[in-house]
Amino acid sequence: MDSIILKTATRYLYPVLIGLSLVVLYRGHNLPGGGFIGGLIAASAVMLRALAGGWEGIGEGRFRNPITLMQVGLILACASAFVGLFVTHTFMEALWAPTWYVPVLGKVKLGTPILFDIGVYLTVLGFAVLCAKSLDSNNN
Length: 140
Hints:
By secondary structure, this protein is mainly α. Helices cover about 65% and strands about 5% of the residues. It contains 4 helices and 2 strands, in the order H-H-H-E-E-H. It has helices spanning about 5-25, 35-55, 65-85, 110-135, and strands spanning about 100, 105-110. Helix 1 packs antiparallel against helix 2 (about 35-55), helix 2 (about 35-55) packs parallel to helix 4 (about 110-135) and helix 3 runs antiparallel to helix 4.
């Protein structure tokens, strides 16, 4: 597909979708679903860019092997679950760092739930990209 309108729209929509996925990811460590929904939004941005310019147009090196992205995500999610086991002897216990104040963002809370959500985010992103690449008839 060689559409100037799609390529132009993608140039503006891609950073907006990636930014939205990161906002949803950060929001999710206090509320359920942030990593999963954020990963789906990021995957839709990647697929939109691949639709507009092909897989070569999105930086093939980043998504050459989505299975590696899934592995890193699963390891991170599992590691965040075991942190509480080693510190408080409770599996999947949420541990929080002191609240920081960042001038642009305001109060920022970091802890093991955000690590879990990042792991889910990477796993969902890798799986969606793997599925999309497997459906592409031009992709080897």
